[in-house]
Amino acid sequence: MDISVKNNAKISFISLGCSKNKVNTEEMVYLVREAGYEIVNEDIEADVVVINSCAFIESAKKESIDTILDVAWLKDNRNLKGIVVTGCMSERYREEILDALPEVDAVIGTGSYHQIVSAIEEVLKGEKYTAFGDKNCSPLSGGRVLSAPEYSAYLRISEGCNNCCTYCAIPMIRGRFRSRPMEELVEEAKWLEEQGVKELNIIAQDTSGYGKDLYGKYALAELIKKISEATAIPQIRLLYCYPDKITDELIEELKNNERLVKYIDLPIQHISDRVLKRMNRHGDGQMIRDTVKRLRENVPGIVIRSTAIVGFPGESEEEFEELCNFIKEARFDRFGAFTYSREEGTPAYDFEDQIDEQVKQDRLDILMSIQMEISAELQEERIGDIVPVLVEGYDPVAEACYGRSPEDAPEIDGKVFIIGRKKYKPGSFIKVKITESMDYDLIGEALPGQ
């Protein structure tokens, strides 16, 4: 392609779905920028828009499709020449996307992110383009251009998943579980620190399974130790840890590593033995109870986030009640629930005992009302605490800065609002005394002298 055309072309990116997708987007931005294209933040200015799609559940697919149709408006009303769709929906539906959505000009699967530049070049020529490389052999790392905010970043330590839960399409979308070498991850963590990252969020489809394929053992605790030794990043956080893979070594690291925040994301999905077995989850309800107990007994003050699915095929009223009772018993600090989404290509799609959508929604409402009461009680107990808050911005309506305590993960948990009109720099840590609580957020005053 003529370099003058390339240098004049403007490319915009939209990243949908999870934090793993966000890292893939950052890697594509790097490749496109290195190829000589200008990256723009506004879709309205772009010659090509790249949409990194999600297709985990039905609502995610709908968001991806709606985004494509919204962007397609720019073809007739602005200068947009092409739309490239990448990510999970691309991998899952492949050529179907071009047939169902003629507005799309190129489709790239999860095994072909590294071909984004070729896709853009073909689209600018007016050609259609598809690429579906082997998702089990795609590169696990590469250069990144960090998206905002620069002080908080994700470190993806593996790709794919071997758990094969009967409701989940991730293994067929992302491929088998593949850990990245420890040395490579330590180097990336050091680079992230150089970019100004103060909060490192460790992610994967199955974070606690890290290392089993490379080292023959679960090696997450060892990885965290090496990252802690090689960097001075003040805040390291664990997300997406499966209950059956919480080792004694990991618990010791959570207890003793001062920079590893006392927080763990521990999706349970259910507590009924029969439902867990039908989901093909590893371990039973007692294992989940034991894991929560081990964490709380050995790591004082630990914050546990969890998730559950209601309305899984065959879930009886008694099994749903068992889940409700467990949520009351466990009193998770952070908790989210979802209605079962029937996904084609998964084993559970063909289960005969599907549950009515209204029943699913009613169960979700009941479960989340239970959690709201628990959350409000736990939040009220925080009044009087002094917590370090990572400042994220200023809310002109509230006339206050806001940020997150170590107990709150980015994008999914609550905020701490700092009373007063003083504006603190995003990315700075401010000590705040909590004075009021809401259902999910807290309000406090900055300690004097900050």
Structure notes:
The protein has helices at 3-8, 19-34, 58-77, 88-93, 95-100, 116-124, 170-174, 182-194, 212-215, 220-230, 248-256, 273-279, 285-298, 317-330, 357-380, and strands at residues 10-15, 38-39, 48-53, 82-87, 106-108, 129-131, 152-156, 158-159, 178-179, 199-203, 235-238, 260-265, 303-310, 334-339, 386-395, 400-404, 416-418, 429-437, 442-446. The protein is α/β, with parallel strands linked by helices. The strands form 4 sheets. The protein has a 6-stranded parallel beta sheet with strand order 2-1-3-4-5-6, sandwiched between helices. The chain has a 6-stranded parallel beta sheet with strand order 7-10-11-12-13-14. 43% of the residues are buried.
Instruction: Predict the CATH topology of the largest domain.
Output: pyruvate-formate lyase- activating enzyme
Q: What is the structural class? A: alpha/beta
> CATH homologous superfamily of the largest domain, by name?
tm_1862 like domain
Number of strands: 19
Shape type: globular
Largest sheet composition = 6 strands, parallel
Instruction: Please indicate the count of domains.
Output: 3
Q: Order of strands across the biggest sheet?
A: 2-1-3-4-5-6
Please write the CATH class name of the largest domain. Answer: Alpha Beta
Strand content: 15-25%
User: Count the helices. How many?
Assistant: 15
Low-pLDDT residue intervals, each spanning 5 or more residues: 1-5
User: What is the gyration radius calculated from CA atoms?
Assistant: 23 Å
User: Terminal Cα separation, in Å?
Assistant: 54 Å
Helix coverage percent of residues? 25-40%
Q: What's the pLDDT, averaged over the residues?
A: 95
CATH architecture of the largest domain: Alpha-Beta Horseshoe
